[in-house]
Amino acid sequence: VICGTAFHTPTRGTLEVLEDALIMIDSTGRISKVVAKNHPSAAEIRAEARHQGILTELQDGEFLLPGFVDLHIHAPQWPQLGKALDAPLEVWLQKYTFPLEARYADISFAREVYSALVEALLANGTTTAVYFATIHLEASLALAEICHAKGQRAFVGKVAMDHPEQCPTFYRDQDAATALDEMRTFIRRVQELAPGEDPLVRPIITPRFIPSCTDALLDGLGRIATETGCLVQTHCSESDWERDFVHERFGATDTEVLSRFGLLRQNSILAHANFVTDSDLALIRQEGAGVAHCPLSNFYFANAVFPLRTALDRNVQVGLGSDVSGGHSPSILDGCRHALLASRARQGGVDPGLSPDERGISHSSISVPEAFWLATAGGGEALGLPIGKFVPGYKFDALLIDLHVPESNVQQWPGIDTAEDVFQKIVLNATRANIVKTWVEGAVVSCGEFVRARARGSA
Ligand SMILES: [Zn+2]
């Protein structure tokens, strides 16, 4: 039982403050009850939990948030975080990214990088991660094992890419048949690693993007998705180059092509989707797929801002993606800030040479609670999982925020700041240092206090 003030956005755009509430967690890590502080049974539940030694009471300056959902991360690009952002997408892939990803044939390198990555993401509050790994079976399995061992909820994808004209010889699947065989093996082995109806770590079918896959591969992956029911992730309509390339090859949009190959399914995760048309959005909505909005990497690689408000108005499922390392921040709190900024740039426009009324696109900006919803419950809905809010039946994936850590940039002024103000300040200014504990499914998986205490002890 946890007693304290929690912030969450159970519906899009609506902040709910659970002030001094009691959150009860069952043995499977699900929330069994949320009891308001003035509920008649609150005092009794609290006293009983304290008596049993199972009560965690938040202190002054401590708050609970739901854990963050990152819908789009390239795990092998972690060593490249914060560099190599000087080239357009098609050059960036060939010049920096494919050579780096090719190194994951080395399993010990893979283990070293992936351990560091998963720990860093948990410390940054990412409790659910949707990963692209590489084409390598063993290294991709290692990522799934590491997520499982460290307790991060994850979808892990062995990347499929076999097109001889778009993929370099040193980094591509041998052919479609081999790639499909390996995808089946990968799915089976991840399911063996984390068995059961409701595993923490799951395989996800991952064609890199349409240009890098032959028709035979796309077709086969669509069949595997139907056979296994595994979710699908891929990139969709990311840049002008990519959109035009697909149009030239198929005479159709990315979304239409994915649909033809059976890859646009319930909870398919489409990264970016910047250049989707109105009918694409309707198709995405109809099939129940979702968009991983990656605002930071879009500034570098898309030369456009995803029409987020339009997608939300059409009831398309949307969450946030860091797009490590096309995005240079692993933090989904940063993701919220970038989504807010991108929506403002879209609303206000960017060219001072134009008059204000022709500069931007009205009705484009989002609010802080909307950004937070994208980062939590919105991402959960896109994946079809009960995560991202504090309601009974949902998983207790949560973060303990402490405003009193010495490194804190978030201040709470007594008599000035309301609870809503504190929430906004956390979303806009909290850092990894403020995230002092991370829970996934009721278990503590990262603990800043512990790490700091240990560092002090050994010094
Ligand atoms: Zn990506």
What are the main properties of this structure?
459 residues, alpha/beta, 9-stranded parallel sheet, 4-stranded mixed sheet, 16 helices, 41% helix, globular, binds zinc ion
What small molecules does the structure contain?
zinc ion
Q: Return the average pLDDT rounded to an integer.
A: 95
Calculate Rg over CA atoms. Answer: 22 Å
Q: What sort of overall outline do the alpha carbons produce when their principal axes are compared? A: globular
Helix-residue proportion: 40-55%
Cα separation of the termini: 34 Å
Given the structure, what is the number of helices? 16
Q: Please summarize the sheet with the most strands.
A: 9 strands, parallel
Could you say which structural class the secondary elements and strand pairing correspond to?
alpha/beta
Beta-strand content estimate = 15-25%
Oligomer: single chain
Describe the structure.
It is a single chain. The chain has 459 residues and is of the alpha/beta class. The protein contains 16 helices and 17 strands. It has helices spanning 42-52, 89-102, 107-123, 137-150, 176-193, 215-228, 240-250, 254-260, 278-287, 295-301, 308-313, 332-348, 356-359, 368-383, 419-429, 448-458, and strands spanning 2-11, 14-25, 31-35, 56-57, 62-66, 68-74, 126-132, 153-157, 159-160, 201-207, 231-236, 269-272, 290-293, 317-320, 398-402, 435-440, 443-447. The strands form 3 sheets. Strands 6, 7, 8, 9, 10, 11, 12, 13 and 14 form a 9-stranded parallel beta sheet that branches. A 4-stranded mixed beta sheet has the order 3-2-1-4. A hairpin with a 5-residue loop joins β2 and β3. α3 (107-123) runs parallel beside α4 (137-150), α4 (137-150) runs parallel beside α5 (176-193) and α12 crosses α14 (368-383). The radius of gyration is 22 Å and the shape is globular. Zinc ion binds at residues 72, 74, 235, 271, 323, 326.
